């Protein structure tokens, strides 16, 4: 077949999947919470029962990745073992335990004319999830979507193709064993990249697309999608040490925010320090970070402040203030006052997570109110911006959008509220 | 200047406006509710004080519209009189009386590690409102945006150019008299259509665009915008008369839904009637509608049902079931059973407003749960889907999107919630 013919065939297949998902989504939306929970339980059972098959499929992907010369970090992300399969099953059972968001009625109030007006929480409809590398996302994403009554179309990374297919087969079995139509969980059965483009044009049948992966993937989806996108781009997170900070606490929070895990979106990338405490705070902080293997990049005053300590610090470039390092690198800037910290954050933040360390109540409150990020924290580690840590029970990602959902996307973020009206013949005059 | 030079000049002007709005938006966002209310009060004062100027500006638009041969209905929409100016001022004062949505903290709960996690309501940032004809939208939109802490860029219809400029001048005076920067209310000072395209490319500085107007405008904005859009497209609203309906009530609700005002998005366009009650219900209903000047278009069974009555009814085309008439026209279809009504709605609804008339509790509940529209009603007129009628106090439009806000867009729809965390040194382990 010519390239065009292949593209057309893929496009036809993708449209047909999207149409089947749209057609079956209402059946799922009106199923009971018990049926949706049973589907998740059965999915977990199937994953554990099919462990051997999953490991074999994963081995095919690992072999191909090795031959293709994939970076060791990527191969590591790709790897499934018994513990990873158990974790997927456990994750699904944790979602079962969460309250059913669907059908919840809130704010039902009686209007002066006697009719009641309220809101009912309902599924969004059909979701497309486009993701990379980690095959466990397959189970997480399906669990959250089915629990929230949404049909789902999966498109995993081509390097995890066999693993994803094997996992998805278990998940579809779970769905059908619970009596739901198989079409509410579909997995794109081709590693061809043209399939993503075709999927992003299915705005007639798909309600929302969620990309999970690197910046390249997310930017491609944003560029091409005719479907609304729930996304998160960079996490350029700031921790600001105020002049009224408890410096011992500030040291722990900075170290935890930066080093607890470095390749994640809620890691602290930029440290701002009030000039009044820089001389006391920065030398021991820098020494500790350096000892732990963290590279330091400082503004000129930071470099001067650390000059006598022997801790290596390179001059930060302008570019550093706008970089998500995703590595053991910290950029440090000394600010003259609180408002300069706010101004730096306003100019450079990616609106993901910002932290202030202070004992001053008014500054804490101003920081909370004025910093415009998905999560704003007082005296806590930036690493807490996470659906599990916030008590949502699970998450599909962390949104840095402002519309619809901001911060961790849990079950509620996968639903919407429609208005309901209960009347007894009310007319508008 | 060449066309290209004009376009470049307009684009530069629009970008500069958007940048100024973005720069000043944080000042507005952190202003107190008292200051924002004072701005709205002053706007109302200025509109009343400048009544003569507004009427003169409006006359210029009316003269131009007459010369251009605009349709009388459009000229009517354009017209301002003393009552319309008073209504704008009153509308602003009604918004003053609404509770301040900004800064509200909800769901603040203590996590097991002792930190509190909750959500704070904040403005979206910078809004662009693109609208047609009615100049009173200028005041409504600015009132809602300023109350909710959002900077606003207005782009009204070119036929209302002088009226909109005069109204906006009053509104900017109100803002500055309250001590807020003038740049939080800006009005595009050119009737050139290229300005809309330039505005829709300002995704770096503008957070949301809301089109208010006809389908052509909304589709253009959806096509061109790189900024997220809150929109509503068609209102193809259904009223379904169930076999268990109170037929006297059904008659009133149908008549009110269709005829109370016909050129609006929440008017009933399609009437579905259960076959068991069609013979009793349709002949008197059709006679009453016909008498009031409503054209009837029926399915074959409806035509047969009305044949002996002498009430004229034309055969409905397939197209009619998917048409927003915005006129005194009603398409009528007899369905065999409740599920056929649901299926018709699922296939043809624009997800705006659907009504069931029934005394049966289970059918009422199924309709509420299963019909996927911005408002779903039992025994009430479709005309109630409206921000004022629902108790939101005001509205920016009615969203048929599912993401972010569904149904009437009031103050809450112009805000978002960020997470806040109050800790005392919590670290992630």
- Portion of residues in beta strands of chain A equals 15-25%
Give the % helix of chain A: 40-55%
- CATH topology name of the largest domain in chain A: Aldehyde Dehydrogenase, Chain A, domain 1
Main CATH class of the largest domain in chain A: Alpha Beta
Q: How many DSSP H or I helices of chain A?
A: 14
* Chain oligomer state: homodimer
Major protein interface = A-B, 64 and 64 residues
Low-confidence stretches of chain A: none
Strand order of the largest sheet of chain A: 10-9-11-8-7-12-13
Gyration radius from CA atoms of chain A, angstroms = 24 Å
Biggest sheet layout of chain A: 7 strands, parallel
Total individual domains of chain A = 2
The best one-word shape of chain A is globular
Please name the fourth-level CATH homologous superfamily of the largest domain in chain A. Aldehyde Dehydrogenase, Chain A, domain 1
Let me know the average pLDDT of chain A. Answer: 95
Q: Give the total of beta strands of chain A.
A: 16
Distance between the ends of chain A: 64 Å
What's the architecture of the largest domain in chain A, going by CATH? 3-Layer(aba) Sandwich
Strand/helix succession of chain A: HHHHHEEEHEHEHEHEHEHEHEEHEHEEEE
Task: Specify the structural class of chain A.
Answer: alpha/beta
């Amino acid at each position: 077949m010519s390239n065009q013919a292949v593209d057309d065939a893929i496009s036809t297949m993708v449209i047909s999947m999207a149409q089947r998902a749209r057609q079956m989504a209402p059946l799922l939306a009106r199923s009971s919470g018990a049926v949706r929970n049973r589907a998740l339980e059965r999915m977990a059972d199937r994953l554990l029962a099919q462990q051997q098959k999953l490991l074999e499929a994963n081995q095919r992907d690992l072999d191909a990745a090795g031959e293709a010369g994939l970076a060791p970090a990527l191969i590591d992300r790709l790897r499934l073992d018994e513990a990873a399969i158990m974790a997927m099953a456990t994750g699904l059972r944790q979602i079962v335990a969460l309250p059913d968001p669907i059908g919840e009625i809130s704010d039902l109030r009686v209007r002066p004319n006697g009719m009641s007006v309220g809101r009912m929480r309902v599924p969004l409809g059909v979701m497309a999830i486009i993701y990379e590398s980690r095959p466990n996302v397959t189970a997480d994403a399906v669990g959250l979507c089915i629990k929230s009554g949404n049909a789902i179309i999966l498109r995993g990374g081509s390097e995890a193709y066999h693993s994803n297919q094997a996992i998805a087969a278990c998940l579809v079995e779970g769905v059908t064993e619970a009596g739901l139509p198989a079409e509410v969980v579909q997995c794109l059965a081709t590693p061809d990249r043209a399939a993503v483009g075709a999927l992003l044009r299915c705005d007639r049948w798909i309600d929302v697309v969620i990309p999970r992966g690197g910046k390249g993937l997310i930017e491609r989806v944003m560029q091409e999608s005719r479907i609304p996108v729930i996304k998160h781009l960079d996490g350029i997170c700031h921790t600001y040490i105020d002049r009224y900070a408890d410096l011992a606490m500030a040291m722990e929070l900075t170290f935890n925010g930066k080093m607890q895990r470095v390749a994640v979106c809620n890691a602290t990338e930029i440290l701002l320090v009030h000039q009044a405490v820089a001389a006391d705070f920065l030398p021991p902080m820098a020494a500790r970070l350096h000892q732990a293997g963290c590279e330091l990049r400082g503004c000129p005053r930071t470099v001067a402040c650390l000059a006598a300590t022997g801790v290596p610090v390179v001059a930060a470039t302008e570019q550093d203030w706008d970089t998500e390092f995703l590595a053991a690198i910290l950029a440090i800037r000394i600010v003259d006052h609180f408002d300069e910290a706010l101004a730096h954050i306003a100019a450079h933040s990616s609106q993901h997570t910002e932290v202030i360390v202070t004992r001053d109540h008014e500054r804490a409150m101003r920081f909370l109110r004025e910093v415009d990020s998905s999560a704003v924290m007082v005296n806590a580690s930036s690493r807490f911006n996470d659906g599990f840590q916030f008590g949502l029970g699970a998450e599909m990602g962390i949104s840095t959008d402002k519309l619809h959902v901001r911060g961790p996307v849990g079950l509620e973020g996968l639903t919407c509220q429609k208005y309901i009206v209960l009347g007894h013949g009310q007319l508008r005059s």
